[in-house]
Design a protein that fits this description.
Its EC number is 2.8.1.7. One of its GO terms (molecular function) is 2 iron, 2 sulfur cluster binding. Keywords: 2Fe-2S, Iron, Iron-sulfur, Metal-binding, Pyridoxal phosphate, Transferase. Its cofactor is pyridoxal 5'-phosphate. This is cysteine desulfurase. This protein is an alpha/beta fold. It folds into 2 domains: 5-12 and 263-384, Aspartate Aminotransferase, domain 1; 17-258, Type I PLP-dependent aspartate aminotransferase-like (Major domain) (Aspartate Aminotransferase, domain 2, 3-Layer(aba) Sandwich), CATH 3.40.640.10. Helix content is 38%, strand content 14%. It is built from 11 helices and 12 strands. It has a 7-stranded mixed beta sheet, sandwiched between helices. Helix 2 (42-62) runs parallel beside helix 7 (246-284). It is globular and about 75 Å long. The two termini are 36 Å apart. Bound molecules: pyridoxal-5'-phosphate. The site of pyridoxal-5'-phosphate has 15 residues, from helix 3.
Length: 386
């Protein structure tokens, strides 16, 4: 066992050994190190081949055309590109965008930035389980609504939104639909040939690939208004300039290929670990499970320990690597905007911890975590009696 036990897979994952072995072939002089944009020699051609193979691996996972994948530096950039790139500021009317209160900060901050530039913004609120009912979306659509951006799986609670219904509503009104699928890719099958999503963001480092690379799915047919946000050499069909990081891209491609084969088995394993963890904690403690009992992925558990300050508990649980919410927002926020949107008061929110399980979590890890949590809370409660 490796200590502290890593239960923070929703913030990032380690690179899989098979991904690592693939990546190191694309770094050194005796490997394939060329610039895929070099058209005049074999170093460039080989690098380009590797990039295209990865593009195919990624598109296979969502059943898209490989030409619909644009490489970026991660989901933050994909979200920025999807939202800013698809807003046509040349239009004279005021444009309206709809999103959700529980979105990732990289979507929310991008939208606030657009709001400063004159875009009208509506954020949908979820029910107490974190779910946004499709009716709520329907009610908020206006004549000037041009884009809807909603996430598939929430990174703090693991709840699954009904993107299929959202998509239907948008498409019947010719509104663009963007999905932040960073937490769902490789966990839930997504087939863009069946669901006509226009834009979808993912990241490599949440799926056992390297950090610093991600992708944006951009539907080709029908073509949409779309503008680059980074300008330069015209890579990625002019949509995202900059020399392609071949080793990173190859790593992301390999990570997707692995998930295509192993997703079902991995989900089953993680579900068993989740059930074991939850029943072990529930038995001895007064807890609330934040999220939806049905529409959730097994990887993420958001638990409120009633009457206990989560910051204190996290410090005392020194053999567990866990967090109170998302790593991305912990630099900015004191308490979670996601739990707040679900109606948790400040006090409950401050008593909540996110546990996220992944590929390398073992049964022993889970047993250890249960014992440490139960013992620590028991001591905390005994001390507070005096
Ligand atoms: C992690 C995460 C992001 C940001 O991804 P990066 O690749 O780290 O920029 C965006 N959205 C969700 C839902 C995430 O979990």
């Amino acid at each position: 066992m490796k200590f502290p036990i890593y239960l923070d897979y929703a913030s990032t994952t380690p690179v899989d050994q098979r991904v690592y072995e693939e990546m190191i072939k694309y770094l050194k002089y005796d490997g394939i190190f060329g610039n895929p944009s070099s058209r005049s020699h074999i170093y460039g051609w080989k690098a380009e081949q590797a990039v295209e193979k990865s593009r195919k691996n990624i598109s296979n996972l969502i059943n898209s055309d490989a030409r619909e994948i644009i490489f970026t530096s991660g989901a933050t950039e994909s979200n920025n590109l999807a939202i800013k790139g698809s807003i046509n500021f040349n239009k004279t009317e005021k444009l309206h965008v709809i999103s959700g209160e529980t979105e990732h900060i990289s979507v929310l901050d991008t939208l606030y930035n657009l709001q400063e530039n004159g875009i009208e913004l509506t954020l949908l609120s979820p029910n107490k389980n974190g779910i946004i009912h499709p009716k709520r979306l329907e009610e908020k659509i206006k004549k000037n609504t041009v884009l809807v951006s909603l996430m598939h799986v929430n990174n703090e609670t693991g709840i699954i939104q009904d993107i299929e219904s959202f998509c239907k509503i948008c498409k019947s009104r010719k509104i663009l639909f963007h999905v932040d699928a960073t937490q769902s890719i490789g966990k839930i099958p997504i087939d863009v040939s069946l669901i006509p999503i226009d834009l979808m963001s993912f990241s490599s480092h949440k799926i056992y690939g390297p950090k610093g690379v991600g992708a944006l799915f951009l539907r080709r047919k029908p073509p949409i208004y779309f503008k680059a946000q980074i300008h330069g050499g015209g890579q990625e069909k002019n949509f995202r300039s900059g020399t392609l990081p071949v080793h990173q891209i190859v790593g992301m491609g390999k990570a997707c290929a692995i998930l295509k084969d192993e997703m079902n088995l991995e989900n089953k394993k993680i579900k068993l670990l989740r059930d074991k963890f939850l029943s072990g904690i529930k038995e001895k403690n007064n807890i609330l499970l934040n999220g939806d009992p049905i529409n959730n992925i097994p990887n993420i558990l958001n638990i409120t320990f009633l009457g206990i300050d989560s910051k204190t508990l996290i410090i005392l649980l020194k053999d567990l690597a866990i967090s109170s919410g998302s790593a991305c927002s912990s630099e900015k926020e004191n308490s979670s905007h996601v739990l707040k949107a679900m109606g948790l008061n400040h006090f409950l929110s401050k008593s909540s911890i996110r546990f996220s399980i992944g590929r390398f979590t073992s049964k022993e890890d889970i047993s250890f975590a249960i014992n440490q949590i139960n013992n620590t809370i028991k001591i905390l409660k005994e001390n507070s009696k005096y």
